[in-house]
UniProtKB/TrEMBL annotation:
Protein name according to UniProt: RagB/SusD family nutrient uptake outer membrane protein
PROSITE patterns linked: PROKAR_LIPOPROTEIN
Domain RagB/SusD span(s) in chain numbering: 348-553
Residue ranges of coiled coil: none
Pfam families associated with the record: SusD-like_3, SusD_RagB
Residues annotated as domain SusD-like N-terminal: 80-234
Keyword match Iron: no
Length: 553
């Protein structure tokens, strides 16, 4: 246990690379910064390692079925537990039992984020203090290479502290790496606003340096940095600054909304809105102009991911229960359906013609198929009285009430509708490049800032741009309030945004989760549960100074 805690106080620098030329069957766990960071190639390997760490967010924690993203998306008005298993922080019948300081998943998430902090600090320190680094190796100057490495590392640190501040509030703010040789057991929790000001500083440093298209595929773009500045300024109640940074993204033609069909399935039935979520279409160089940041996953490549399981968690268990359908790639693969849309999230669509509610975007039915229809997989088992070609419509008229036995016949978002076509049952990981952030989110930040600044007409116009793209009817000024904006975010960013953070930022998490999540009203403590408990192991390791726990735990 104490070894784990060293991620915060004296963590091992763990570097992994997603570059094909650095593959090793048994890579070393410890790489000393003094040797690794002596030249540009070593620093690039360090940056690759940071991006690999950040991509853990969409993986199972410690190669388990606990998806890290659950801590940011689930337990909200949009997602409830369904077949809960050993998930992260879903509001469920056992919320009280799990939401404790000794819950090992919280410890894992906390220490994962501090591993990013420490690894970032290690790179920053070496670049800022060493004079013997060999910066040759590409067409950029020494100054350009130096600034770009610093910018990427500071973005990663901002990424980690953004998460930490939303999940735990006041957390230790550390800007020095563990390689300094000082083992600290006297950490203090830094006020959350001070932590967020550091996030802003890191992003402001990076913004003029990070290129518009990202320095490599899978790395953050300038637009994403500008987006996070816009979001943080809303959190800091500075909507005028939000509007400034959101407009940088919205007014940049490089980050255009997808309005026309394109890419790998353009000759098949579908809608423009969903093309960008298809494997082979997600990256900017593949035609996805809306993407601001795309997570890269590749099987059997060091740094390409070990256990990305977004599809498995969000795809319902159509393979069992009354449905008992054959698992196929086009149905979404092997679904566990641990985190399901709430009934409210499905009922939230206010226009039946909205593409975002269509069968292409949300799986609401299946068709019984014979062997030819399922090829190369077996035929579906036909219930008595049914025929191949018959449709099964998924029913959400009654809410999810039991998150252990679950409901197989439940609709799900198709934004992660991907499986290994060779073995959709055995290979359950989502090894394809996934959109992590897109410009539509920035439009909604812009609308929120306009609303907070009193320009309700502008907010309605901004939202109507998104609604028009999805063939939803226009709204008027009278429709706009903060709850409508949150409703629209739910329609547009279903299964994408860190919904918990959005609701916390707007002061709506407890209210809306208790109202719209069937498990919420009986399990949430609206004062206590807006923050997670500091892991007990972290508190116990802080031997020289008491680290206060969050209230109520």
């Amino acid at each position: 246990m104490k070894k784990l805690i060293t991620c915060l106080v004296s963590s091992i620098l763990l570097i992994s690379s997603c570059s094909d030329d650095l593959l090793n069957e048994n890579p070393p766990n410890v790489i000393y910064a003094e040797n690794l960071y002596s030249d540009l190639s070593g620093l690039e390997a360090g940056i690759n390692g940071l991006y690999s760490l950040m991509r853990y967010e969409r993986e199972g924690l410690n190669a388990s079925s606990s998806l890290i993203t659950d801590v940011t998306m689930s337990g909200t008005d949009m997602f409830a537990a369904n077949h809960s298993g050993n998930g992260v922080s879903r509001v469920s019948v056992d919320w009280t039992a799990r939401n404790r300081p000794d819950y090992d998943v919280y410890e894992g998430v906390f220490l994962w984020l501090y591993e990013i902090v420490n690894s970032s600090n290690e790179i920053i320190k070496n670049v800022e203090e060493r004079e013997d680094i060999d910066w040759s190796g590409n067409e950029l100057s020494e100054t350009e290479n130096r600034n770009l490495i610093l910018a990427e590392a500071r973005v990663a640190r901002a990424f980690a502290y953004r998460h930490l501040s939303y999940l735990w509030g006041d957390v230790p703010l550390n800007l020095n790496p563990s390689s300094d040789g000082i083992i600290r057991t006297d950490w203090e929790r830094t006020p959350v606003n001070e932590v967020r000001q550091q996030v802003v500083k890191d992003l402001l440093f990076a913004e003029p340096i990070i290129p518009e298209e990202g320095s490599l595929t899978g790395r953050i773009t300038k637009g994403a940095v500008q987006h996070y500045l816009a979001e943080l300024y809303l959190t800091l109640n500075k909507p005028d600054s939000t509007l400034f940074w959101a407009n940088k993204v919205v007014n940049n033609p490089a980050y255009a909304l997808i309005t026309e069909r394109y890419g790998v399935q353009v000759d098949q039935a579908g809608i423009a809105f969903m093309d960008m979520f298809k494997a082979g279409n997600t990256n900017r160089e593949e035609g996805n102009s809306e993407a601001l940041w795309v997570f890269q996953f590749k099987n059997n490549v060091l740094g390409g991911g070990e256990y990305p399981i977004m599809a498995m968690h969000h795809t319902s268990r159509y393979r069992s229960g009354d449905l008992d359908l054959t698992v196929t790639a086009d149905r979404g693969g092997y679904g566990n359906g641990r985190s399901s849309l709430t009934k409210w999230a499905l009922d939230n669509f206010d226009d039946p013609n909205d593409d975002r509610f269509s069968e292409y975007a949300i799986r609401k039915s299946f068709t019984y198929r014979d062997a030819a229809g399922n090829a190369p997989y077996p035929a579906d088992n036909l219930p008595e009285g049914k025929n191949y070609g018959d449709k099964i419509y998924l029913d959400w008229s009654e809410d999810i009430t039991d998150d252990h036995n679950g409901i197989e016949e439940w609709p799900f978002s198709r934004k992660y509708d991907w499986a290994d076509p060779v073995d959709p049952i055995g290979n359950r990981e989502s090894f394809y490049d996934q959109i992590y952030l897109r410009a539509a989110d920035t439009y909604l930040l812009k609308a929120e800032a306009e609303f907070k600044l009193g320009d309700v007409g502008a907010a309605a116009n901004t939202i109507n741009i998104l609604r028009a793209r999805s063939h939803a009817s226009n709204i008027t000024v009278s429709d706009i309030d903060i709850d409508f904006i949150l409703d629209e975010r739910a329609r547009e960013l279903m299964a994408e945004e860190p919904r918990r953070y959005t609701l916390l930022r707007t002061g709506k998490w407890a209210e809306r989760t208790m109202k719209y999540n069937n498990h919420g009203s009986s399990t949430i403590d609206p004062k206590r549960d807006i923050l997670l408990p500091i892991p007990q192991s972290v508190i116990d390791s802080n031997l020289e100074k008491e680290m206060p726990q969050n209230p109520g735990f």
